[in-house]
């Protein structure tokens, strides 16, 4: 992987432009970008808001995910940022991107990056529903 990856968990708004800039370069022929948004429902239940919480070691785990994906896509550039705290419907919760010499690599790297992030990084979602109930998602 060329360059230093953008990897961060933060409690402020995320920037698609910042992520795109982090994976751009004269050696990059394609960028695949995933933007995860807070939606107004989960299955058949209306969602009013949610909060993301991260384990204190989540940053290190996210760094490891980037390192593992980078090992399989050494010519690419990767970025992953995740928001924590209270989010409203429509807010950006997560952005991952992969810039690679060819589009197929970019798509594969970005897909792996978001899948590995969601399955291994200890970030938990607390959803609040229209009916007054709530639910934690992603707890071990």
Secondary structure layout:
Elements: E1 6-10, H1 16-23, E2 30-37, E3 41-42, E4 45-54, H2 58-72, E5 77-83, E6 85-87, E7 92-100, H3 103-120, E8 123-129, E9 134-137
Parallel strand pairs: 1-5
Antiparallel strand pairs: 2-7, 3-4, 4-6, 4-8, 5-7, 8-9
Helix pairs in contact: 2-3
Describe this structure in words.
- The structure is a single chain.
- The chain is of the alpha+beta class.
- Helices cover 29% and strands 39% of the residues.
- It is built from three helices and nine strands.
- The strands form two sheets. Strands 3, 4, 6, 8 and 9 form a five-stranded antiparallel β-sheet that branches. It has a four-stranded mixed β-sheet with strand order 1-5-7-2, with helices on both faces.
- Helix 2 (58-72) runs antiparallel to helix 3 (103-120).
- The radius of gyration is 16 Å and the shape is elongated.
- The mean pLDDT is 95.
């Amino acid at each position: 992987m060329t360059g230093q990856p953008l990897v961060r968990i933060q409690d402020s708004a995320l920037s698609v432009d910042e992520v795109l800039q982090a994976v751009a370069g004269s050696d990059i022929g394609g960028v695949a970008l995933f933007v995860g948004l807070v939606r107004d429902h989960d299955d058949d239940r209306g969602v009013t808001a949610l909060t993301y919480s991260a384990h204190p070691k989540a940053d290190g785990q996210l760094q490891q995910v980037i390192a593992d994906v980078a090992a399989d896509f050494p010519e690419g550039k990767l970025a992953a940022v995740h928001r924590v705290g209270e989010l409203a419907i429509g807010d950006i919760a997560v952005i991952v991107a992969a810039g690679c010499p060819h589009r197929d690599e970019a798509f594969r790297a970005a897909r792996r990056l978001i899948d590995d992030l969601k399955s291994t990084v200890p970030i938990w979602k607390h959803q609040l529903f229209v009916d007054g109930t709530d639910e934690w998602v992603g707890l071990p």
